[in-house]
Amino acid sequence: MANGGSTFSVIGADVTIRGDIEASADLHVDGTIEGDLSCTSLVQGESSCVEGAINAESARLSGTVKGTITVRDLVILRSARIDGDVHYETLTIEQGANVNGRFAPDALKAAKASLDRVEDGEQRLTLAG
Asked: How many other CB atoms are there within 10 angstroms of residue 72's CB atom?
């Protein structure tokens, strides 16, 4: 456990997860996720691929994302390849990043709408902190 009681979980490059993930911890993803991802803070490695929606307070994306991104404080690095709409409050994009989608500075509204759509009985992987 790090200072302040926060935790940090890692999904390694050799890991593929099929299903939604909810993490109360900060999350570093180098592997593949086929499902929606929700966490406090996300760091995505260059070799990582997320095929699903991402919801987080903050994120640094440098891999591939195929899905809607809803992040309050978003950094898209030059190696990132994003195919989907991006909802944010603050946004930084490095030159060379590839984004195919619409940008909307409304992260809080989009996050609430996304939570309203969650159906009962959905399979989820929860990483406890």
From this structure: 16
What's the order of all strands across the beta sheet hosting 98-100?
16-18, 32-34, 49-51, 64-66, 81-83, 98-100
Identify the CA nearest to 84 among candidates 115, 126, 54, 57: 54
Residue 64 and residue 62: Cα distance in Å, rounded? 7
**Which helix H or strand E contains 38, and what residues bound it?**
strand 37-44
Cα–Cα distance, 98 to 96 (Å, whole number): 6
**Which of the 8 DSSP states describes residue 121?**
T
Distance CA 34, CA 53 (A): 10
Model confidence at 44, pLDDT cuts 50, 70, 90, reads very high
pTM: 0.80
Phi-psi label, residue 84: left if phi above 0, alpha if psi -120 to 50, beta otherwise = left
Residue 84 in contact with residue 101, Cβ under 8 Å? yes
CA dist., res. 35 & res. 93, Å (int) = 24
Asked if residue 124 has pLDDT above 90, the reply is: no
Q: Is 80 exceeded by the pLDDT of residue 5?
A: no
| Both tokens assigned to 119 | 């159906």
